[in-house]
Amino acid sequence: MSKWIGWACLGLLLGVVSLGIVVPRSSGEDKPEPGAPKRAEGPAAPKWEYLVSHDKLETRELNKLGAEGWELIAVTGERPSRAASEYAAPGFYFKRRK
Predict the structure, then answer these.
(1) Nearest to 58 by CA among 13, 34, 92
(2) Cα gap 94→98, rounded to integer Å
(3) What radius of gyration, in Å, describes the C-alpha atoms of the chain?
(4) Beta-bridge mates of residue 96
(5) Is 98 within 8 Å of 49 (Cβ atoms)?
(6) Looking at 4-8, 47-51, 70-74, which range is the least confident one?
(7) Do 39 and 61 contact (CB within 8 A), yes or no?
(8) Strands across the sheet with 71-76, in order?
């Protein structure tokens, strides 16, 4: 039984190796010439604009920004301001496509 498994594995290995020989390889015709401009692959990367607000925003205001296309991407917590007795408001970070 183990001899049969050994021969089967060898046959499988030879079949996999032979695929590399049977499958035609690229002739290199699709390579760009040196100095040729690069082709864009896929759609262009999106351009974003950003908005940062340190105001306390209510749900109504957040919904209005969302309706204008702004997406909330981060919120920072309250942090001490430069004056030791005050705290800076949290920061709301938004982005939208230009």
Answers:
(1) 92
(2) 13
(3) 30
(4) 49
(5) yes
(6) 4-8
(7) no
(8) 48-53, 91-97, 71-76
Residue type at 92? F
Tokens of 67: 């309706």
**What residue segments make up the domains of the chain, in order of their start?**
46-98
- Per the listing, tokens 């920061």 go with 91
| pTM (predicted TM-score) | 0.49
Tokens of 5: 């498994």
Give the residue with greater pLDDT, 20 vs 38. 38
SS3 readout for 20-83: HHHCCCCCCCCCCCCCCCCCCCCCCCCCEEEEEECCCCCHHHHHHHHHCCCEEEEEECCEECCC
